[in-house]
Write a structure and sequence with these properties.
Length: 85
């Protein structure tokens, strides 16, 4: 029974993915299915084709601020404050 469930699930993957893909690609305008768009090669279609291959990028995380590197130079303060002893 487990083998049957696993096999059925594996065999349904490709058809379901194809159906979802067809629905998504149907949303692109100008249409990716119309061969006339490839022949006309308009700027709008040139933007549509690469967008059909793009995957959503993860939300940008704030980049960490660069930490100041330790300065190897000695304290150049002309009037250093005395340190308590």
């Amino acid at each position: 029974m487990v083998y049957g469930l696993l096999t059925t699930t594996a065999n349904l993957g490709a058809p379901v993915a194809r159906a979802i893909g067809n629905q998504l690609f149907g949303l692109f305008r100008p249409s990716l299915s119309d061969s006339a768009n490839y022949i006309a090669d308009t700027p709008a279609f040139r933007g549509t084709v690469p967008n059909s291959f793009r995957t959503p990028s993860p939300s940008p995380s704030p980049s960490p601020s660069p930490s100041p590197s330790p300065s190897p130079s000695p304290n150049l303060d002309p009037n250093p404050s005395p340190t308590p002893s």
